[in-house]
Amino acid sequence: MADKTFTTRRAAEAFERQQKEALHGGGFVSPQQQRTPVSEVVTAFLDARSGQVAPHTLRTDRDNLAALPGKFLARPIGSVTEADVLALLTDLLGSRAHSTVARIRTTLSALWSWAVRERFTPTNAVRGVRMPSGAVQAHEGAPLTPLILAAVLDAQRSRSPHGALITEWLSLTGLRWSELRALRVGDLQDVPFPAVRVLRAASDGYAEKSPKTARGRRTVPLVSRAHEIAKAWAAGKGPGDYLASSATGLQLRGTYFRRAVAWTTTSPDHTIHDLRHYAASTWLRQGIPINQVAAWLGDDPRTVLRVYAHVLGEAQDMEALRRLNASLPSHSPDTAPETESGEGGKVGRTRKMGSDQGKTGGDGGI
């Protein structure tokens, strides 16, 4: 079932034992299969994924795998170790954002899981590899803050008031772009509280589908400003019409929207998806529980905890700083201790005010 040449009898016998154990344990992988180049496994993997996952997911996997260098793709899949995967991810961080490389790692893990199932390799060389920190992270855009968002909206209003409302609404609701595109007027509710029901998603160029996650079908409350914008969008439309549409009344398209608001000029350091992160961070800073924020986002609470851990820690840091400021003595010029001038203009001893200050008696408290 398998053959291999060794320089010593001991190594050959060890190989024979390993193959027999794998054969009896159901984990046998032919050495011939393990010699299959990674590039061929990638092609078979993408062909198998077609029809099993959403077209958008398949395109993402294809794009992520296209980023792999030719030298890595030429490797036999059975020869790739965890050290090789770590080196690959580290090299990719030299030219790509940390978030981009993290997505490539996710696709790689899915590829290796499929390869194990199809008996191309006995183990998943990606699963045990954690993302390296990478120096590129420091160059990624700063978080979207209220001040930055206000500047973005002001710049976009001068180019497209209609487009600026879309940006503002996304920052208030945390919806994905694909979910906004698929919203209908009938998804807007006024009672028992203003909200939108997120029932579907439609990425640019793809057919409508269920929202991204199992928790995707959800109801998202609308603050007064978001409700005001939504009511203005819905005016004069039927229940089946798109709630947010283009200036000409058509379904939103990301390319046209970014062009209308000059996104690369008005918000060069951020993406449309950053508006979702802005909304989530705002909710958490205002004390909304993690489970509630996760429900509004359509995400797992564990994901919210992991992604927004830095936001959750801000309240503790602020309280600690408040306590430190309250307990430390002041050294400002207005509260400097009094001094006496000695002979010749020299500064004398500092006057220390004790607990007997203001009392009369022989002891001065100097």
Automatic annotation (TrEMBL):
Keywords: DNA recombination, DNA-binding. Transmembrane segments: none annotated. Residues 139-322 form the Tyr recombinase domain. Residues 327-366 are annotated as: Disordered. Gene3D superfamilies: 1.10.150.130, Intergrase catalytic core. GO terms for molecular function: DNA binding. GO terms for biological process: DNA integration; DNA recombination. It comes from the Bacteria. This is Tyrosine-type recombinase/integrase.
